[in-house]
Design goal:
Distance between the termini: 64 Å
Largest sheet: 3 strands, antiparallel
Number of helices: 2
Strand content: 25-35%
Helix content: 10-25%
Length: 87
């Protein structure tokens, strides 16, 4: 890893995260896991050397991400809404 000279620090309460992966799908999977823990959605992607993907995220380290609804909550049909085959 090479040190980067003259890089400015993110503002207080923010963190810059760099992900380098062989495929865009792998980079997105890691970014999604990070987004589950930290608020913030600023994302930039770039081609990485040798055909990979480089993804840069900015996250808010002072604010937790929204809680993820449980599978039970998301699998229930909306309250009061009839299914297509119901009258």
């Amino acid at each position: 890893m090479h040190p980067i000279k003259h890089e400015t620090l993110p503002q207080a309460g923010r963190a810059e995260i760099r992900i380098v992966a062989a495929s865009p799908e792998a980079a997105r999977a890691v970014a999604e896991a990070i987004r589950r823990a930290f608020a913030g959605a600023e994302q930039r992607s770039y081609p990485a050397p040798e055909g990979g993907t480089r993804l840069h995220l900015t996250v808010d380290t002072e604010t937790a991400a929204e809680p993820t609804p449980s599978w039970l909550t998301t699998s229930r049909p909306p309250t009061g809404a009839a299914h297509a085959d119901e009258a």
